[in-house]
């Protein structure tokens, strides 16, 4: 019996499906995949549909160009569900812009965000209240000099959150406790603080934080 082999030959990169383009671009930073828009008419607006936004200050020469670039990208991005928003900035950055970018992103995507990672080790992070009510958010990784949530915080609802990494020198204890109390599916928890001991409570052991709601925890790391 002779086996038939089906061969598919791509004669041009434009023969790739849009779905595959978006998958490939999602592994790149936003700046790098936006550059592809000048290579082909077909790609001119494709970058707006990539389900990830990744910004790194080190890819830009100065703060002004970086800010303008992020402003434009966040506003023009059109993917309905955003798989991830990743932001890495240096200590020369103005902190108020970060909270505004997160809020704009949430509004533009109707709070359809699955993963958020902010690396701003030397910057005060003021997070919008809306961030803590995203029903599909599964990963939340925050690093900042100080991490606070926009007041007043009355509701926290993160039913899908499985990974929470929280690194800072100072943070709002009440907000973090409210966050922990809403994470029934949390499996990976890391809380680090540079100057003050972070303590927990589970079952009959009482310290400062109560994580008895986090019944699915697999990995737990506390430092400070």
UniProtKB/TrEMBL annotation:
<dbReference type="InterPro" id="IPR001810">
    <property type="entry name" value="F-box_dom"/>
</dbReference>
<feature type="domain" description="F-box">
    <location>
        <begin position="13"/>
        <end position="52"/>
    </location>
</feature>
<dbReference type="InterPro" id="IPR055294">
    <property type="entry name" value="FBL60-like"/>
</dbReference>
<protein>
    <submittedName>
        <fullName>F-box/FBD/LRR-repeat protein</fullName>
    </submittedName>
</protein>
<dbReference type="Pfam" id="PF00646">
    <property type="entry name" value="F-box"/>
</dbReference>
<dbReference type="InterPro" id="IPR036047">
    <property type="entry name" value="F-box-like_dom_sf"/>
</dbReference>
